[in-house]
């Protein structure tokens, strides 16, 4: 005779995405992590740019040709926005750690401000780079 198999414990499940409705705070938290990972992919490009700069004008010219292609400009714009967004939401998190802006209306307002400021910073950065501002 064999012993009966143990019964699975009927434990409650923790709340999951199927229970919670999407919120601004959830999306911004996830996107903060995504932009952090995206910036990790931008770092080798920055190192490559510095290496090309130190290798001389011919190498630097070839590297800049790649960066100034339509695909290169798309990546540079995305990475610059990701940097500005990550910076703004990082400052927001530091304010939370200091005990500021923790009320729900302030959390949502600071989230919208972070989105707006990161976009404005990116636009002004590229206006400056292209010599327009």
What is the topology?
Blueprint lengths: L23 H32 L1 H11 L2 H28 L6 H26 L4
Helix pairs in contact: 1-2, 1-3, 3-4
As a percent range, the share of strand residues is under 5%
Our count of helices gives 4
Helix vs. strand class: mainly alpha
Distance between the termini: 85 Å
Low-confidence stretches: none
What report would you give on this structure?
It is a single chain. The chain is an all-alpha fold. The chain has four helices and no strands. It has helices at 24-55, 57-67, 70-97, 104-129. Helix 1 (24-55) runs antiparallel to helix 2 (57-67). It starts with 23 loop residues before the first helix and ends with a helix. The model has no long low-confidence stretch (mean pLDDT 91).
Features:
133 residues, mainly alpha, 73% helix, flat
Give a quick precis of the structure.
With 133 residues, this protein is mainly α. It has helices spanning 24-55, 57-67, 70-97, 104-129. It is 73% helix and 0% strand.
């Amino acid at each position: 005779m064999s012993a009966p198999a143990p019964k699975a414990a009927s434990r409650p499940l923790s709340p999951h995405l199927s229970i919670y409705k999407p919120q601004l705070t959830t999306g911004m938290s996830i996107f903060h992590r995504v932009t952090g990972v995206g910036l990790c992919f931008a770092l080798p490009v920055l190192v490559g740019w510095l290496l090309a700069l130190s290798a001389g004008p011919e190498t630097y010219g070839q590297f800049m040709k790649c960066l100034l292609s339509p695909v290169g400009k798309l990546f540079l714009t995305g990475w610059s926005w990701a940097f500005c967004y990550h910076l703004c939401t990082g400052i927001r998190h530091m304010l939370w750690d200091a005990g500021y802006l923790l009320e729900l209306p302030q959390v949502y307002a600071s989230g919208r401000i972070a989105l707006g400021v990161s976009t404005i910073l990116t636009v002004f950065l590229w206006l400056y780079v292209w010599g327009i501002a």
